[in-house]
Each structure stands twice: as C-alpha cells, then as structure tokens.
C-alpha cells in the first residue's frame, strides 16, 4: 500500500458506529484508575497486562474484558474513559461516533446506572464543545444475563431516555439468541429507542441469529452480521431493507483468525450498507484508521470504495437527516 492511500484514509472524515466504550480502556488508563481507586491489579506493568490479553475466541476475550472493568468506579472514571476515546477518535478524523455502553457490567458490581451515564454524558458534552466530535449513546444488554435483568436495566434507563438513542445486545451469543429478549426489545421500541443487535462472526448460530433479528426483532441495524453473506435470501432481504452492518475487521481477526476483508468487499459490491469499525480497540489493537487500512490493503480497495464505506456509515447512522446531509457534504467535498 502506498503512502498516498494511507494518508487518504487518515484524513478522510469518518463516522464510527460500533465501539464499546469499556473496550477502549487502554492499559495505561487502567493502571491510572486502579491507583486512584486504591485497587491492586494482577499485573506489574502495562507490558505484562498486554501479554495477558490472550484470546482466540469470543468467550476468552470476554473474560479479560469484564475483569478489566473493575477499575471503573466513579463518575470521573467513566468521564476519563470516554474522554480518552474521544481524543483518540478525533485524532483520526472521526467526526461522529455512536458509542455502546454495558450498564449491567457495572450495576452487577454495585455501580449505579446514574454514575455510569452521568460520567459518559459529561464527556460527550465536553468532547463536542472542546474537540468538535459529535456522539450518541447506545445501551447494550448482556445476552448471557437473563431477559428479566435486561428489562430491569431498560427501566433504570428510562429517566435518562433523552441521553440514549438506541438499544443493542452484546456478549456471549452461545445459547443466547435474539428471541430470548423479544419482549424487552418490543418495550424498547415503544419507548422510542432504535434497535441493533450483535450477530458476531462465525458463531454457532450466526445465520439463525441474523434471521431472528430480521423476522422477530425487526432491528434497525446489525452489528457484525458478516455471515449474512452465507445465505442468499438473507443478504437479499438485508439489501432490500437497506439495513446497515457494522463490521470490525481487527476484532474478527482475533475471534476467528480472519479479518473478513473479502466479505467486506463483496458486501460493497452487492450494494449492502457495510461499514468498518473498531469494536474494542484497546483489546483488539487498532482504532478506525488501522481497521480501514488493513481492509484496504488486503483487498486493494479503491479510494471510491473507502469513501463508500464512510458514506454508508453516515447514512446508516442515527443522526437526523439534516445532520447526515451536513457530514455527507463534507465527505463529498473531501472526495472531489
Ligand atoms: Zn461489539
């Protein structure tokens, strides 16, 4: 890949739609928060911690991921976590980001819902004011917890409804299909939330899960959804509905030892609204630029295809139409 293409990707105006804020907790910040909260981490230094990030599938990643969250305790911790991500995103010309957070991973440790969302919210406000990066929040339920727990979390979120644009579903998919949460998501839709769900790559029932997202849950978007290509009727339906897919190449490479870059190219060629995102960049090392660059390199995508990925991202985002228009104009200007 030449330097011209790298520079084109780096300077391109970008939107990120699949980013877990807890997954952006870099070792350096983890140590700083542990110290502030008088917690002892089981690692001597950052190198030792990174060396412990050994995972080759979804469950082994999740074990390290949840352990890492123990340092997030106060509103200030959630503020610092979010601000660190926003600064990094801004440095990569991300102009807009939809950020996932996992309230149950915190409320189950005795941290209140309010502490989590107030800390994140203040960073969103300051990030927009100081860095010019716009963000919206998506609350995810942990699918390996019960649907009652998800419903309870939805109720806790209602007083903060205006601060949350959508509701998603993440964590371990094995034996935890979308339909397990049908009634919770029906209620979320009634409350005015947009809906998305993870259908991670090459899981045991990926195709069934994607089918349930379409037929039973009626999602507005699918996170990952790489396996929709494996079933012709499924991808045709996704194209027909204009549903967006938030794919995360470096994350894929950790989970199944394949960036799935080819699938991203094929999806672009089939007119699917596919996007590239960073997922958990502190654990699957690489933010937006690194993810875009790896896909471009493997599939030799053109500048126009790179622009198409970002056009898709702004188009499938949950911004209002005027805001979408504003960002798409910037992107067109960049491309001209
Ligand atoms: Zn994810």
Describe how the helices and strands are arranged:
Layout: H1 3-11, E1 14-20, H2 27-36, H3 46-51, H4 58-68, H5 75-91, E2 94-101, H6 103-107, H7 113-131, E3 134-142, H8 147-157, E4 164-170, H9 182-190, E5 194-199, H10 206-217, E6 221-224, H11 232-241, E7 244-247, H12 249-256, H13 261-269, E8 273-276, H14 288-299, H15 303-316, H16 321-335
Bound molecules: zinc ion.
How would you portray this structure in words?
This protein has one domain (3-335): Metal-dependent hydrolases (TIM Barrel, Alpha-Beta Barrel), CATH 3.20.20. 53% of the residues lie in helices and 15% in strands. It contains 16 helices and eight strands. Strands 1-2-3-4-5-6-7-8 form an eight-stranded parallel β-sheet, sandwiched between helices. Helix 10 (206-217) links the parallel strand 5 (194-199) and strand 6. It is globular, with a radius of gyration of 19 Å. The model has no long low-confidence stretch (mean pLDDT 95). Bound molecules: zinc ion. Zinc ion is lined by residues 18, 20, 170, 198, 223, 279.
């Amino acid at each position: 890949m030449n330097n011209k293409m790298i520079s084109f990707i780096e300077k391109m105006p970008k939107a990120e739609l699949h980013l877990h804020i807890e997954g952006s907790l870099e070792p350096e910040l983890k140590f700083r928060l542990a110290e502030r909260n008088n917690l002892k981490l089981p690692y001597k230094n950052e190198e030792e911690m990174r060396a412990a990030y050994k995972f080759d599938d979804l469950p082994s990643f999740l074990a390290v991921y949840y352990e890492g969250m123990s340092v997030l305790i106060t509103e200030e911790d959630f503020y610092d976590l979010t601000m660190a991500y926003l600064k990094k995103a801004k440095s990569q010309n991300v102009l807009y980001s939809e950020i996932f957070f996992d309230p149950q991973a915190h409320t189950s440790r005795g941290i209140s819902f309010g502490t989590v969302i107030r800390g994140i919210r203040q960073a969103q406000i300051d990030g927009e004011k100081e860095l010019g990066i716009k963000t919206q929040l998506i609350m995810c339920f942990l699918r390996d917890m019960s649907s009652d727990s998800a419903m309870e979390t939805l109720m806790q979120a209602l007083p903060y409804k205006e601060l949350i644009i959508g509701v998603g579903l993440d964590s371990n998919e094995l034996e935890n299909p979308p339909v397990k949460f049908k009634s919770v998501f029906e209620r979320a839709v009634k409350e005015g939330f947009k809906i998305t769900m993870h259908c991670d790559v090459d899981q045991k029932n990926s195709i069934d899960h994607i089918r349930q997202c379409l037929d039973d849950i009626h999602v507005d978007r699918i996170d990952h959804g790489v396996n929709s290509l494996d079933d012709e009727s499924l991808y045709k339906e996704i194209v027909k509905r204009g549903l967006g897919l938030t794919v995360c190449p470096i994350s894929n490479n950790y989970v199944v030892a394949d960036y799935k870059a080819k699938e991203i190219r094929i999806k672009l060629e089939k007119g699917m609204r596919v996007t590239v995102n960073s997922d958990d960049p502190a654990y699957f090392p690489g933010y937006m630029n690194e993810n875009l660059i790896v896909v471009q390199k493997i599939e030799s995508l053109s500048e126009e295809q790179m622009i198409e990925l970002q056009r898709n991202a702004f188009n499938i985002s949950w911004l209002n139409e005027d805001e979408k228009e504003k960002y798409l104009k910037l992107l067109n200007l960049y491309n001209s």
